[in-house]
Design a protein that fits this description.
Blueprint lengths: L2 H10 L3 E3 L10 E3 L16 H14 L8 E2 L5 H15 L13 H4 L11 H12 L12 E2 L2 H12 L50 H10 L33 E4 L8 E3 H8 L34 H4 L11 E3 L3 E7 L11 E5 L1 E3 L14 E10 L5 E6 L6 E5 L2 E5 L7 E4 L4 E6 L1 H5 L2
Parallel strand pairs: 5-8, 6-9
Antiparallel strand pairs: 1-2, 2-3, 4-7, 8-16, 9-15, 10-11, 11-12, 11-16, 12-13, 13-14
Protein name: Peptidase C19 ubiquitin carboxyl-terminal hydrolase domain-containing protein
InterPro entries: Papain-like_cys_pep_sf (IPR038765), Peptidase_C19_UCH (IPR001394)
GO biological process, one term: protein deubiquitination
Length: 439
């Protein structure tokens, strides 16, 4: 039997459905077998907006575990459409002349403007915060803060950027998304909010009671944003039930590079450290610094003539408390904000290391498990002005260049341990398998 015939036979097998215990009230998961390499996504009009959606979706489509951690027939229309689209992209032959074969209506409904008029951060917020975060698969994106004080410091950092919505890290906003009674720790009443002590755990709602049940019944209406956010962590499906705790975590971080000019180069790890108020690290005696200009560009469009110093990249961390995490997310999603408005994007070079060790972000650095992240993929600008994805396919080692229907094998590294790009707007890192598999 040929390989193609075997794959066709495997795809003809009905989906496997995993049903959790009845008492949990959680939805079953569907499992399907995707193709071994990415499939193209149609863009008949060859528009930049559609290519941006296609490129972003390709990064998500080719992550491990997506095919086995989505709910089976969820009651929410948008999540159901997303689940069906994933299955179609994974298993059906692409139709290059039919955009309706892969439709993004489930995402458009969560955008305030058409896709070609919204900041890229708004697109990621709709995809991760409104859709993916409501599934078991979405649990892999959540960034968990070690203490309430660290969380509040993070929120204050977002508040200082209200004049620039594109710089916010996540669309989930605990200050307005649900009633005040749901924003206090389990050991405090609504009349006595919890303090900001260093050792306090992230704020959780009070245990289920008559008052809290009434809040659920009042606010779990079809059009209420609260409906999607009263969900359980690490569950088979993030579907709201009475008494479930409200836990708010960002699903991505936004790194601002709008102040950098075209010849400059800035490193993702340095941006991440500055964003979370951690000191920069430098290496000597042959090893390049985090913002070294000695490396050779791997992007044919990039030829940097100077490099940004760490002191100019962001505000010094000495004026802020370090923001630490209680655990590392399985998937670290990073948005690269190139402009505070769409009229003048920065053309600086963004350097993405293939490997990043994020042990320094953990509050308890003695934790057992992997802390090494590997670059899984990124979205950047193609020569024709459209957007493309450079991504791996699940656990595979090959890199693929995905420009709408055109999918080819590529090598963005060219023998080096980093990628440099002038047009990157989104990158995603994946925690190593030993920790992911233990989830």
């Amino acid at each position: 039997m040929t390989h193609d015939a075997m794959m066709m036979m495997m795809h003809s097998v009905p989906d496997i459905i995993v049903t959790p215990p009845t008492e949990t009230g959680l939805l079953p998961l569907g499992f399907h077998i995707p193709w071994e390499r990415p499939s193209g996504l149609p863009n008949t009009a060859a528009t930049r907006a559609r290519s941006q959606l296609n490129a972003t979706f390709q990064i998500i489509l080719n992550l491990p575990y997506l095919s086995c951690e989505l709910p089976c027939n969820p009651p929410f229309h948008d999540i159901n459409e997303f689940t069906l689209m994933v299955r179609k992209a994974h298993m059906d032959s692409p139709l290059p002349d039919d955009d309706t074969h892969i439709s993004y209506h489930w995402l458009h409904r969560h955008l305030s403007h058409p896709p070609d008029h919204v900041p890229y951060t708004a697109l990621i917020a709709a995809l991760l915060d409104k859709i993916i975060s409501q599934t078991r698969f979405g649990d892999r994106f959540f960034i968990e803060f070690a203490t309430r004080k660290g969380y509040m410091a993070f929120r204050r950092g977002l508040a200082s950027n209200h004049s620039s919505p594109a710089s916010n890290d996540s669309a989930i906003d605990v200050s307005s998304s649900y009633p005040a009674a749901a924003r206090f720790s389990q050991n405090t009443s609504p009349q006595h909010p919890s303090s900001d002590s260093d050792n306090e755990e992230p704020s959780l709602p009070p245990p289920a009671n008559d008052t809290y049940t009434a809040i659920h019944e009042k606010d779990l209406e079809n059009n209420s944003p609260l409906r999607r956010r009263l969900t359980r962590r690490r569950s088979y499906s993030r579907i709201p039930l009475k008494g479930n705790p409200v836990v708010q975590y960002p699903t991505y971080l936004a790194l601002d590079v709008s102040s950098f000019s075209e010849p400059q180069t800035v490193n993702v790890l340095a941006l991440l450290k500055a964003h979370l108020h951690h000191p920069q690290t430098f290496f000597f005696f042959g090893a390049s610094s985090l913002l070294s200009s000695t490396s050779t560009s791997t992007n044919t469009e990039s030829s940097p003539s100077s490099t940004v110093s760490s002191s100019s990249s962001c505000t010094s961390s000495r004026n802020h408390d370090r923001i630490q995490l209680s655990s590392l997310p399985n998937y670290l999603a990073l948005v690269i904000n190139r402009a505070r408005d769409a009229s003048s994007p920065s053309q600086c070079i963004v350097e993405m290391p293939v490997d990043m060790d994020l042990l320094f972000l953990l509050k308890d650095q003695r934790a057992v498990g992997e802390t090494l992240y590997k670059l899984h993929g990124y979205v950047t600008t193609a020569e024709n002005g459209r957007m493309l994805a450079i991504t791996k396919c699940r656990e595979g080692k090959e890199w693929y260049r995905c420009l709408d229907m055109d999918v080819t094998v590529t090598d963005p590294l060219m023998g080096l341990n980093r990628v440099r790009s002038r047009g990157v707007v989104f990158c995603l890192y994946r925690l190593q398998e030993r920790l992911i598999g233990a989830m």
